Amino acid sequence: MIDFISQYAASYRSKIRTAEQAAQVVKSGDWIDIGMGAGFASLMDAALAKRKDELWGVNVRGYLIHEPIQMVECDPERKHFIYNSWHMSAYERKLSDRGLCNYTSMVFRNLGHYYRNYLTVNVAMVAVTPMNAQGYFNFSISNAATREVLNRADIVIVEVNENLPWVFGGLDECIHVDDVDIVVEGEHGPLPHLDSAPATAEDRKIAELVVRRMVNGSTLQLGIGSLPNTVGSILAESDLKDFGVHTEMLCDSYLDLRRSGKITNRMKGIDRYKSVFGFALGAQELYDWVRENSGVVSYPVAYCNNATNLAKLENFVSINSCIAVDIYGQICAETAGMRHISGTGGQLDFLEGAVLSPGGQAFICLTSSFTDKQGNVVSRIKPNFSDGDVVTDPRSLAFYIVTEYGCVNLMGCSAWERSERLISVAHPMFRDELIAAAEKQGIWIRSNKR
């Protein structure tokens, strides 16, 4: 793969091993990291799966992986490989449903800190771009906390993925061949593409409520899915302009804004004229946008999600979704009862950052209800959490809560004010029972609106 004349080419060639040869460094009981998102080391995964009968109790970390993990699929009893995820993709959620994946709690901005101070990494393996003439491999669209993982590892394996775009960065976006122990080459399939469900009428109403509160020059953190995509589409069609981008995840939500020329980043207090992200997942158009683009740069999430940095961005706007909210303002974005769905990710980081930003706003969006598999309509606004619901964001950080019935600000509100405001945006068929629950819990007063 290396065909240029470089002082580092000899070092590169001396470190080349087949995936099967590289897999021999893993021992029973080891802790190994296999990358995240498009940085998943799929060739190494396949090679390790072939060693199943030789290995016992290998502990595996990864997250946001969207293709089958062969180590997991080949070992349904989890005797040989024990997989743990920092944040679950749809595929990892299905593994969790089968008892083949455990979630590891984290606050995203602190992930590198966990590795530096608390975790063991015997072997780390990550997909990277081909090496350049200066001897560097690039983490491409999977910066996040990758360098911190590799810094902690006893043995570093890079798997060269010829499809990954080189992404310019502000910090920790590369690793030099001198810091690598083993290089693995081989053919890879297409990069993961994420398809969002079509926007619903409720999505459109929620998005319109959010957009009407935004101003020119806002810096955006958009999550993934049909609702953020709808927000991006409405903003692209609006009279607003000069948006900035500062996000942990760069996704398709930004594409309409890019096409319309409304992303300029010229009003940002930091990283002026540059879109900043920690990792990217979406369509090929997204990957083409970030390839060797001086206006789009990657940073580790320790930078992207740092509230001190977000405080330097005027009119920072964070838009995320959740599964449920209780009438105290506690937010669940991770579980549906005992079923694990996602993870904390950076939602908590961006709530805190939006509070500190001059003119900042954080929106947590959800439909007021959903229909379960039995055909029952269920309220997403609950009297309280129980049965395994995990609190992702504390009530003390709840900002705007938005449903198709309205948008309410909970900042500085007492318990009775919160219950009143949240019930006002609940589905009408559940409001009376929510009021009764609030009265029983002592957070409803006679002057409250009915």
What's the SSE blueprint?
Layout: H1 9-14, E1 16-17, H2 19-22, E2 31-36, H3 42-50, E3 58-63, H4 70-73, E4 81-85, H5 90-97, E5 102-103, H6 111-117, E6 123-128, E7 136-138, H7 146-152, E8 155-160, E9 174-176, E10 182-184, H8 201-211, E11 219-222, H9 226-237, E12 244-245, E13 249-250, H10 255-259, E14 275-277, E15 279-280, H11 284-290, E16 296-298, H12 301-304, H13 307-310, E17 316-321, E18 324-326, E19 331-332, E20 335-336, E21 339-340, H14 347-356, E22 361-365, E23 369-371, E24 377-379, E25 381-382, E26 400-403, E27 406-409, H15 415-424, H16 431-440
Parallel strand pairs: 1-10, 2-3, 2-6, 3-4, 4-5, 6-8, 8-10, 11-12, 11-17, 13-15, 14-16, 17-22, 18-25, 22-26
Antiparallel strand pairs: 7-9, 18-19, 20-21, 23-24, 26-27
Helix pairs in contact: 6-7, 8-9, 15-16
How does this structure look, described?
The protein is built from 16 helices and 27 strands. The protein has 450 residues and is α/β, with parallel strands linked by helices. The strands form eight sheets. It has an eight-stranded parallel sheet with strand order 1-10-8-6-2-3-4-5, with helices on both faces. Strands 12-11-17-22-26-27 form a six-stranded mixed sheet, sandwiched between helices. α8 (201-211) packs across α9 (226-237) and α15 runs antiparallel to α16 (431-440). The chain starts with 8 loop residues before the first helix and ends in a 10-residue tail after the last helix. The mean pLDDT is 95.
